[in-house]
Every structure is written in structure tokens, then in C-alpha cells.
């Protein structure tokens, strides 16, 4: 399966620009949790 | 959000954040207060270049995201432990602050009624956000909004300095200091900053208390809109107002509290999320510091400042007395 990266970026930007600031905060929080839990990325210091 | 326009300002926030945390390591200063100091000093000395403005304005987004992530280091048990006390004190202090500001501004100092209501909203709920939300519902004039917002910012700057000193002098515990700051200071950013500057526990209690206060904004907007409805405002008053004004990031915070309570996060993951919200807070506080501009604060009128100062004394001493008795 091929992923259309440019389409993904366009969709993400459209989604982001429609969000209220509070929901943007929730999205950033959810992304960080996802990175920490699923990809085991550790944020130091 | 235009990506290219915000990058320089976000870069500035990141540099300020690294500097603040480095200064803590080297000189032992609290990095959250240093972050506010960096923003404040730069904004009031050399000034902030215009092209950094859009990126710096994202600081409220990072504060909200930090608060969402803070939910991961709390559990329902912790919240329920003193939850009832928080709700009682928040209800008591919010109501009494609105009443004190309204009575002082109308009956004692003769301020315009709408200006008094904006000051009451700003002092009782969540600072400038509450001023703007209530202004929309009561058709306040632009100059009244600017006046009320400047007054709230003046006291944000004042309480950032004074609360930590009082907390230290009275040797308040983390729980009492946190709830006290959360229930009686004005804007969310300064509350989180002085809370975490005191201790981790104080920061968490301060934030939770402030969130429960912020959640009341919809009711206050609805109340004022109803009150002023007879005097010419065209705003539709509905239950939808409650949802529109509700700070949605509280929902993200609550979801993470539930997830953490279910024991889903490992210790390493929890530590990483704690580091993440600490970084987000530092970014936010560099931006918050740039908002405290002395030339804006000078535009605050003496009378509105006096009204809010008296209300702050009442709410601050009332809440501290209740907390010292109950906890």
C-alpha cells in the first residue's frame, strides 16, 4: 500500500486550521501520549 | 495557523525555555519563574520584534496541552481525596468575588455597570479569557474591555511575585498553597507557574482547582447575558452558551486522568509525559512573560485597580482561612 504523504499533510493542515485552540491543545497532548506509548519515544530532562 | 509565520516565535519560546532550564541547573532559580522573567525583561527592554508575534501567541496552546498531559500523572483517587473541599471553596470564593466586585464598583466607587461586571468576571473566573467571554455577552465597549483586561494583567503580575512569598512565609503545604493559588489568583498561566514553582504537588492542585473554576465560565456568561438581556443585548441565550464557553482541554485532561487511573502507563511512559508537560509549561511561560507589558499596565485606572485589589484581599484571605480550617 502506498501512502500519499502530500495528501496527508494537506488533510492534517486543513483539520488543524478548523480546530478551536482548546481542541488544538488536546490534539498536541494526544500526539505526545501516542508518541510516548506506541513508539516508546522518551522526552528527556 | 500559518506554519512559516509561527516558526520564528516558537523558536524564540524554545530558546527561552532551554535558557530557563539551564539557569535552574546553574544558579538554582526556579525555571518556571525564570521563564516568565525572560519574556518580561525582553518585552519591556529591547521589545519583541513583530515577526515573532504569531509564534509567541501560540503560548496558550502549549499551556493547554501541558495541562492535558498533566492528567497522566494524576489518578481519580488523588482527585477525590480533596475534590469536595475544592468544589466547596471554588463555589464560595467565586460567588463572593463576583458579589464583592459588583457591590464595590456600583455602590461604592460608581464605576460603569458593564465595566464592573467585566472586572467581576476577570477576578472570579479566569482572567482575560473571562473578561472577553463576558464582554461578548453583555455588549461591553472596547475601552471597557481594554481597561478590565489591563487590570487583570496588573494583578497577574502582582500575584506572581506576592503569592510565592506569602506561601514561603506561612510555610503552607503543597496542597493548601496549590488550592489557595488556584482558587484566588486570576489567570491560568500564573496559577500553574506559582503552583509548580512551590512544588510538584502544589502545581497539580493549583491547576486542578483552576480548571474547576474555569469550568464555571459558561454559567457566569449565561448569568450576565440573562441579566443584561433587558438592556438591549441581542445575544441568543441558550444552554449552548455553556458548551461554547467551556474550556475543552479540561476534557482531554479528564480522559488522561481516567487512562492513568486504569494503570495503562508504565513508569517510564509517565516520566516521559511529565517531562513533556514541564517543557510545554516552560514554553508557555516565556510567552506569558512577554504579555506583561509595563506600558499597558500603566493604562489601568486607579479605581478599577482598587476595586479588584479589595476583592483579591477578600477572596484570598477567605479561601486561605477556609482551607486552613478544612485541610
Note poorly predicted spans of chain B.
Answer: none
| Overall pLDDT score of chain B | 90
How much helicity do the residues of chain B have? over 70%
Radius of gyration of chain A: 13 Å
Termini separation of chain A comes to: 38 Å
Overall mean pLDDT score of chain A? 85
| Helix/strand class of chain B | mainly alpha
Number of strands of chain B: 0
What is the CA-CA span between the terminal residues of chain B?
Answer: 45 Å
> What are the low-pLDDT stretches of chain A, counting only 5+ consecutive residues below 50?
none
Count of helix runs of chain B: 17
Radius of gyration of chain B: 19 Å
Q: Give the quaternary arrangement of the chains.
A: heterodimer
How helix-rich are the residues of chain A, as a percent range? 55-70%
The biggest beta sheet of chain A is recorded as: none
Strand fraction band of chain A?
under 5%
Morphology of chain A: flat
List its traits:
heterodimer, A: 45 residues, mainly alpha, 2 helices, flat, B: 327 residues, 17 helices, 80% helix, 0% strand
Provide an overview of this structure.
The complex is a heterodimer of chains A (45) and B (327). With 45 residues, chain A is mostly helical. In chain A, 69% of the residues lie in helices and 0% in strands. Chain A has helices at residues 5-18, 21-37. Chain A is flat and about 35 Å long. The model of chain A has no long low-confidence stretch (mean pLDDT 85). Chain B is an all-alpha fold. Helices cover 80% and strands 0% of the residues of chain B. Chain B contains 17 helices and no strands. At the A-B interface, helix 1 and helix 2 of A face helix 4, helix 14 and helix 15 of B.
Could you outline the blueprint of secondary structure elements for this entry?
The complex is a heterodimer of chains A (about 45) and B (about 325).
Chain A: H1 5-18, H2 21-37
Chain B: H1 3-27, H2 31-44, H3 53-56, H4 59-70, H5 76-108, H6 113-124, H7 127-138, H8 142-169, H9 174-184, H10 188-198, H11 200-214, H12 217-228, H13 240-245, H14 249-261, H15 267-291, H16 294-297, H17 302-326
Helix pairs in contact in B: 1-2, 1-15, 2-15, 4-14, 4-15, 5-6, 5-11, 5-17, 6-7, 6-8, 6-17, 7-8, 7-12, 8-10, 8-17, 9-10, 9-11, 9-17, 10-11, 10-15
